[in-house]
Design a protein that fits this description.
four-stranded parallel sheet; single chain; 13 strands; 327 residues; alpha/beta
Length: 327
């Protein structure tokens, strides 16, 4: 996503050089220049380079001295600190209403790093959701650990059984990698409550005695977002799960989302956490607490899901809005 933003900037303003201000190494293909903070070396380098414009991105390691040193217009995209408004920028742009209220004079553009030109399609199936009618009749909660990766299914089981000690519910579990479907299912048979498999359900509904509903159908994985109470995003629970986390699809369905401690630098995870439209859990106990909150508080579920979808709608077209403000 970050590369896409820069690709849109190139034809409009010419080639860009990335200024490195953080501790982590840059692994992309674009030319970079180090801007060290010590002895104001970075500020001196910006002044010496004489760029036609400077773009600050996100927190930019809180390097507020760089805009003051730049001999050109400065634009701050995805600003997250009120001090950005006092740094001498021509435009300060923010991703969400939360930052807009916190930063005086900021322009609410949405987050161009998400690269959203449209929301994903929403396909809520009454027939599919009707499979859970016995759970709805008993007011059981339904959790969805979606698109899980390596190391995350065991955590899903642990969290679910911790919650079920207090109030009964259902764990919908959908691993992302088809190569892991069968091994994970066979491992789950060792549980005292083996799962029901979505593809082999012999009735039109899921019996209320079911504790784990195991999904191995990619089409159903997306449509199930419309049937559950809350979603725990796969690839955010364990660093070994290296696929892209998907927060966008469940938020488009208006479902509240919980993210774990992994992949916090992913654009969607970082932006959604900054906007406070998802719940973040830094450890297992925090994940249990977040799931318990959404399992037991329908009002909080509805509010968070509605807020997340509204925020997501504001992200559509953000790149175009940002480009229009850069001169």
């Amino acid at each position: 996503a970050r590369g896409g933003v820069l690709q849109r900037l190139d034809p409009a303003f010419g080639p860009w050089i990335l200024g490195s201000v953080g501790d982590g190494p840059y692994t992309g293909q674009r030319p970079t220049v180090a801007l060290p903070e010590r002895h104001r070396a970075g500020a001196k380098r910006v002044r010496r380079l004489q760029p036609p414009r400077v773009v600050m991105l996100g927190r930019a390691a809180e390097r507020f001295e760089l805009p003051a040193a730049a001999p050109c217009p400065v634009y701050w995209i995805n600003a997250a600190d009120p001090r950005a408004a006092r740094a001498g920028c021509r435009q300060v742009m923010v991703a969400g209403e939360f930052q807009s209220r916190a930063i005086a004079g900021a322009r609410l553009t949405g987050d161009p790093l998400l690269g959203l030109d449209a929301l994903p399609p929403v396909d809520t199936s009454e027939e599919l959701c009707g499979r859970f009618r016995e759970f709805r009749a008993r007011d059981y909660w339904i959790s969805y650990f979606a698109a899980t990766g390596e190391g995350e299914e065991a955590l899903a089981y642990g969290v679910f059984f911790e919650l079920a000690r207090q109030r009964q519910g259902l764990l919908v579990l959908a691993p992302r990698d088809p190569d892991r479907y069968e091994p994970l299912y066979r491992e789950s048979l060792k549980s005292p409550r083996p799962p029901n498999r979505h593809g082999r359900l012999m009735t039109s509904y899921v019996p209320h005695q079911t504790r784990v509903y195991y999904v191995e159908d990619e089409e159903a994985m997306n449509r199930l977002y419309g049937c559950v109470d809350f979603v725990v995003a796969g690839a955010t629970l364990d660093e070994r799960a290296r696929h892209e986390p998907d927060l966008i699809t469940p938020m488009a369905y208006g479902r509240p989302v919980i993210v774990g401690p992994a992949q916090r630098r992913h654009p969607a995870v970082e932006s959604a956490l900054a906007a406070q439209v998802v719940l973040g859990a830094d450890h297992t106990d925090g994940l249990v607490d977040a799931c318990r909150l959404l399992a037991t508080d329908p009002g909080r579920r509805e509010s968070l899901g509605r807020t997340a979808r509204s925020w997501l709608q504001h992200q559509v077209g953000a790149t175009d809005r940002v480009l229009q403000l850069i001169e």
